[in-house]
């Protein structure tokens, strides 16, 4: 092709692009002054006019533009009917090349005369396409074949067309920034030239046929993901000639023949979709050009799709294949965390933190196809949704209308996903053309699940890396890991962390399993788990910390701290009533999760609802578990008493003193999504729960039958990123087991932080920055007053405190006679797998400094009594009940108090034993109702000779992971 032809070709392309662009711009302006009743016809004429212009140019130029026209002709779901009806002519055939040219190419490529090759060669082509044309023939040996012959000079034309297409896309992106197709054209420029070598196509055809099992007898292929399609056998190939087995079939656009043969179009398109799902998710090798011209339907019953033309194929690396499967399943499940994780894994980077919009866009991408007669409605709906999202971006970025048009929310778009996107759009267009509706979520899901579940393989028996590779701290940890493997093998554990301290030292720090049902990444020591009501133990600790610092008193009226709260009979309700679950507000906002889940994420609105709530019982009379209201009441108290945001108090009180930065949050900030474990549900446990009797200590809206109903929706709700980011101090803690265990290890020692966490733990605890910061929250008027008068308030409160004596920063003082701690520390030789316990008797003088970096968290020497509601705090808590002041009381079998802690729905827990200076935390992402946790606690306590808390006793039968009474709180 000479330079003159190149420039003439380029001029035609750019001229038409400008003409069509200016035509539509003119229509946009003129319709503003037109009667609404005439607008539809006005636009229809514009579409017909420009579609005709485009078709004429494509026929004249051929080459790459034919492929563009074929692609557009399949998009009946988004393009006007005028374009579809005209451009679909390109699916049939183009004007054929001369027979002399065809024969010359065959003889040149195959090295023989036509008579030596063929018994018969049909002169008229079956079809003529952009790159080649196909003739039917009979080989010398009698086999019926088709011969695909590449057009002479097509390579130069295709390469030139790609340059022109790239220039046009650049121009469109400049003129209309919201339509930036550069990633798409860049990938096409990389992949399209591969179609010009028919040896590649031959090998691709063999590979896809082999992957789909097209040569296997159906009775031999028992796979649930078996697809029922046909692919022609490759006979011979060169760079420009491809000889294939002849298959007699009906074209998909031949509606009359399809109807005459009784073809079920719905089943055909579904099977084609399944074939592509198999290629993409299971094989990672797929045909990138599924337009209607590349399919036939076999004439013999049962009618099966025939897949043709494997020139444009895409091979996906295994990580990308898994990421695409994860993206699909995250979209199907509404799991924003997994979706963003999938984006990260595939290299898709967003400029904005907008998980809701990302999920919405992905859901639209995988939406069900619509018949062609609904195309206009679909286009309108997509346009409206796009405008809505752009307004959200405009508000978030504070952009004007011109700026928002030029703003691209995508920072990096991986090339591997381009052809995948094209395939899905072509399949959607195919179904629209044939007027069938395809639910992609249903059809493609089993294939996506296969690739992920095959890589996850939850059972540790099939995965030696199931236990995360960290050194064993003690022999009890070695035994624990064996138990976890047993529980994992019977599918009771998906992902788990266990961390324990004994006498201030780490003796267990184990992580095992995977982050989620569709997330094969391993659980690590720094993984963040959603721990539900374990959060209450953290929130209660903050209230006690404020009391210890003179910001409030436990016997103080809540209304004195939070004036808006003192309405509707709550004026005499005290702080200790809230901590003891005796405020009478046990059912307040109890229906929020089912009636209005989005209210959960509105911190201010929830505080307003709680402030206006009405007690059901007199304060202090009856203990009923405040399963949700506890957090908001305490949260309101914390913010009003401190004059600070709840998260800031959490950082000041515990995060920084304990050096657990980045591993304990109440409402996660942006930036930690890659470390989140995804919740799923143990369905077997759920069925057992629904049949259990009610419990008197639980409120009416939180009885076991209702919990069973709630639990089925909790994973979906609490996997949503906007819910994970919400401040829900009763239920939305996210932490690692090692951060939670360190918290209780400090509490068990009266507030003295333990020595630095084990150096064997990797990454080191506290190595994550506790950033980015949360967005600012509006301070209440009283909070501002508190900040202004902080010094005066502190002084007055300290004068009124009943206990002002402070322990020295370095002390943990008990006399060294009978008060000395004699304990058993477990150690193990890293080079040995022996399970023999090494016992070391150590007398520890508690006066020795434990941690020089931070002073004590609490100065009150009676802080344990305060947590338990005993001793001088006994008048603030009901006797012989489950909860003390914010913490669940741990009792041994003989009824004596041994410690305190808090469990959460789903099995996560944290508690400590005071006398034995023992603290443990368990985090789980497969929500069960205590059986797994109980097995873990029983083993560890038994090995350490520590009294087993009553809450974790009573295993049912001999089945692992089952118990009589579910652990709910």
Question: Short description, anyone?
Answer:
The chain is α+β, with helices and mostly antiparallel strands and 969 residues long.
Q: What can you see in these coordinates?
A:
With 969 residues, this protein is an alpha+beta fold. Helix content is 43%, strand content 12%. It has a seven-stranded antiparallel beta sheet with strand order 16-15-14-26-25-24-23, with helices on both faces. Helix 1 (3-30) packs antiparallel against helix 2, helix 20 crosses helix 26 (646-658) and helix 24 (603-611) packs across helix 25. Mean pLDDT is 81; it is low at 774-853 and 955-961.
> What's the β-strand tally?
27
Radius of gyration: 35 Å
Number of helices: 35
Q: End-to-end span in angstroms? A: 78 Å
Strand content: 5-15%
Tell me the structural class: alpha+beta
User: Could you tell me the mean pLDDT?
Assistant: 81
In this structure, how is the largest beta sheet organized? 7 strands, antiparallel
| General shape | elongated
| Strand order in the largest sheet | 16-15-14-26-25-24-23
Helix proportion range: 40-55%
Could you list the spans in which at least 5 consecutive residues all have pLDDT below 50? 774-853, 955-961
Q: Can you give keywords for this protein?
A:
six-stranded antiparallel sheet; 35 helices; seven-stranded antiparallel sheet; alpha+beta; single chain; 969 residues; 43% helix
């Amino acid at each position: 092709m000479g330079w003159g032809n190149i420039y003439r070709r380029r001029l035609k392309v750019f001229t038409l692009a400008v003409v069509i662009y200016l035509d539509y711009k003119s229509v946009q302006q003129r319709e503003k002054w037109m009667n609404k009743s005439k607008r539809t016809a006005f636009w229809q004429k514009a579409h017909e006019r420009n579609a005709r212009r485009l078709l004429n140019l494509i026929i004249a130029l051929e080459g790459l533009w034919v492929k563009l026209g074929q692609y557009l002709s399949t998009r009946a779901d988004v393009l006007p009917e005028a374009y579809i009806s005209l451009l679909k002519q390109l699916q049939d055939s183009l004007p054929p090349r001369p027979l002399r040219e065809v024969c010359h190419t065959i003889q040149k490529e195959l090295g023989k005369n036509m008579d030596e090759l063929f018994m018969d060669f049909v002169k008229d082509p079956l079809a003529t396409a952009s790159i080649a044309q196909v003739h039917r023939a009979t080989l010398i040996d009698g086999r019926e074949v088709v011969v695909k012959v590449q057009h002479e000079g097509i390579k130069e034309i295709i390469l030139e067309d790609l340059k022109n297409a790239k220039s046009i896309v650049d121009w469109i992106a400049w003129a209309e920034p919201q339509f930036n197709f550069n990633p798409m054209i860049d990938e096409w420029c990389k992949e399209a030239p591969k179609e010009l070598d028919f040896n590649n196509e031959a090998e691709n055809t063999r590979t896809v046929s082999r992957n789909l099992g097209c040569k296997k007898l159906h009775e031999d292929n028992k796979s649930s993901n078996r697809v029922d399609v046909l692919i022609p056998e490759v006979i011979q190939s060169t760079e420009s000639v491809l000889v294939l087995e002849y298959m007699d079939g009906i074209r998909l656009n031949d509606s009359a023949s399809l109807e005459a043969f009784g073809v079920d179009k719905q089943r055909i398109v579904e099977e084609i979709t399944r074939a592509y799902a198999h290629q993409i998710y299971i094989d990672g090798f797929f045909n990138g050009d599924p337009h209607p011209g590349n399919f036939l339907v076999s004439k013999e019953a049962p009618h099966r799709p025939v897949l043709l033309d494997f020139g444009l194929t895409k091979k996906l690396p295994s990580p990308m294949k898994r990421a695409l499967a994860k993206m699909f399943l995250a979209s199907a499940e509404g799991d924003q965390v997994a979706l963003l994780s999938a984006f990260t894994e595939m290299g898709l980077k967003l400029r904005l933190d907008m998980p809701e919009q990302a999920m919405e866009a992905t859901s639209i991408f995988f939406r069900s196809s619509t018949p062609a007669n609904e195309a206009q409605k679909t286009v309108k709906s997509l346009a409206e949704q796009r405008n809505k999202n752009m307004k959200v971006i405009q508000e978030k970025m504070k952009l004007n209308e011109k700026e928002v048009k030029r703003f691209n929310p995508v920072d990096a778009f991986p090339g591997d996903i381009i052809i995948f996107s094209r395939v899905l759009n072509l399949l959607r267009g195919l179904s629209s053309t044939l007027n069938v509706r395809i639910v992609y979520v249903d059809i493609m899901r089993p294939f996506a699940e296969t690739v992920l579940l095959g890589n996850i393989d939850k059972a540790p028996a099939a995965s030696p890396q199931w236990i995360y590779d960290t050194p064993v701290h003690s022999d009890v940890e070695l035994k624990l890991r064996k138990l976890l493997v047993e529980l994992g093998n019977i599918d009771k554990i998906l992902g788990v962390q266990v961390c324990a301290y004994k006498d201030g030292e780490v003796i267990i720090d184990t992580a095992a399993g995977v982050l989620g049902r569709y997330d094969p990444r391993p659980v690590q020591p720094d993984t963040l788990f959603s721990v539900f009501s374990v959060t209450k133990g953290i929130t209660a600790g903050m209230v006690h910390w404020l009391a210890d610092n003179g910001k409030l008193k436990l016997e103080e009226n809540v209304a004195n701290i939070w004036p808006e709260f003192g309405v509707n009979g709550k004026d005499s309700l005290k702080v200790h009533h809230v901590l003891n679950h005796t405020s009478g507000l046990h059912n307040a906002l109890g229906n929020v999760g089912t009636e209005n889940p989005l209210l959960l994420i509105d911190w201010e609105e929830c505080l307003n609802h709680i402030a206006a709530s009405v007690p059901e019982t007199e304060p202090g009379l009856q203990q009923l578990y405040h399963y949700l209201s506890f957090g908001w009441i305490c949260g309101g108290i914390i913010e009003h008493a401190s004059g600070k945001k709840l998260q800031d108090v959490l950082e000041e009180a515990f995060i920084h003193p304990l050096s657990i930065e980045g591993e304990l949050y109440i409402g996660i900030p942006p930036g930690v999504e890659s470390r989140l474990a995804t919740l799923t549900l143990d369905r077997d446990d759920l069925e057992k729960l629904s049949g259990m009797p009610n419990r008197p200590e639980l409120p009416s809206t939180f009885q076991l039958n209702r919990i069973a109903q709630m639990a089925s929706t909790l994973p979906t709700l609490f996997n949503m990123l906007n819910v994970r980011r919400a401040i829900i101090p009763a239920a939305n803690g996210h932490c690692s087991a090692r951060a939670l265990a360190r918290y209780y290890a400090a509490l068990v020692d009266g507030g003295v932080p333990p020595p630095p966490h084990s150096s064997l733990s990797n990454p080191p605890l506290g190595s994550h920055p506790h950033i980015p910061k949360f967005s600012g929250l509006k301070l209440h008027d009283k909070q501002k007053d508190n900040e202004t008068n902080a010094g005066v308030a502190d002084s007055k409160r300290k004068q009124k405190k009943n206990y002002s004596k402070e322990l020295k920063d370095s002390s943990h003082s008990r006399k060294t006679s009978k008060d000395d701690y004699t304990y058993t520390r477990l150690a193990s030789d890293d080079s040995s797998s022996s399970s023999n316990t090494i016992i070391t008797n150590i007398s520890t003088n508690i006066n020795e400094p434990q941690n020089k970096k931070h002073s004590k968290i609490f100065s009150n020497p009676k802080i344990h009594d305060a947590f338990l509601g005993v001793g001088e705090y006994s008048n603030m808590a009901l006797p012989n009940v489950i909860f003390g002041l914010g913490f669940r009381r741990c009792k041994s079998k003989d009824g004596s108090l041994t410690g305190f802690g808090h469990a959460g729905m789903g099995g996560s827990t944290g508690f400590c034993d005071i006398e034995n200076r023992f603290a443990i935390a368990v985090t789980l992402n497969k929500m069960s109702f205590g059986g797994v946790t109980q097995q873990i606690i029983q083993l560890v306590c038994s090995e350490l000779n520590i009294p087993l808390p009553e809450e974790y006793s009573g295993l049912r039968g001999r089945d692992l992971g089952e118990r009589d009474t579910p652990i709910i709180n």
